[in-house]
Hints:
The protein is mainly beta. The protein is built from one helix and nine strands, in the order E-E-E-E-H-E-E-E-E-E. It has one helix at 60-69; strands at residues 8-14, 19-22, 28-41, 47-59, 75-88, 94-107, 111-113, 119-121, 128-129. It has a five-stranded mixed β-barrel with strand order 1-3-4-6-5. A two-stranded antiparallel ribbon has the order 7-8. The longest helix has 10 residues, at 60-69.
Amino acid sequence: MARSVNKAIILGNLGQDPELRSTPTGLSVTTLNVATTESFKDKNGEWKDNTEWHRIVVWDKMAETAHERLKKGSKVYVEGKITNRSYDGKDGVKRYVSEIRASMVIPLDYKAPNRNNDYTDESNDEDIQVQDNNGEDIPF
């Protein structure tokens, strides 16, 4: 029996194109910025939107796949675990980051080119799943 659970599920849209980098050892890592928006009524009965931004980190071969298949505005489903880390910025100041280390990324509006180079909906396309590397070789 598990003593604890660390699982995040995000369904949202990319706010910018995925950023692909490589670690010094050649491992690929892609960063996604995903927005989730919830609507609510304020005290005056008017509808308001509240948008939260989530930093998603995708590793290894699936980082490359995510980089190829996703773009700004793409709708994605992400599963992963919440991680916290710190690093020293270029100015020498210690910075703290919370992010989701993805174990699965599913593009919900991916269109793959067919034989005629037209783009068609690929709803049965494989999920983008990655293995956790335990934060080794983080390039930033």
